[in-house]
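job 3f2a | input accepted
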Amino acid sequence: MKKKIIAASAIVVWLFLISFFMLTSRHVDLEVFFVLWLIGILVVVEMIDTRFSQPAYLKYVKFLVAAGIVIFGVIVTQKVLEILAK
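job 3f2a | predicted structure (86 res):
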């Protein structure tokens, strides 16, 4: 199988596992879901990245990861501001 298909399958399985455990615990939180998704995609990107050549699709995935890190920064900033406001 190609690395691209394996990576996509791994992300889908990871998201289903996160969703399953959130639904069984009856605590669905989009921020937690997003952070766990970001961790999963960072691991997958690190595993499929090659040293000497870079597939074209990996460039777009890295843009997605960069956008995710920016959103993660916004979430962390909001949480810190909530704590400081108390």
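job 3f2a | The chain has one domain: 3-85.
job 3f2a | closed
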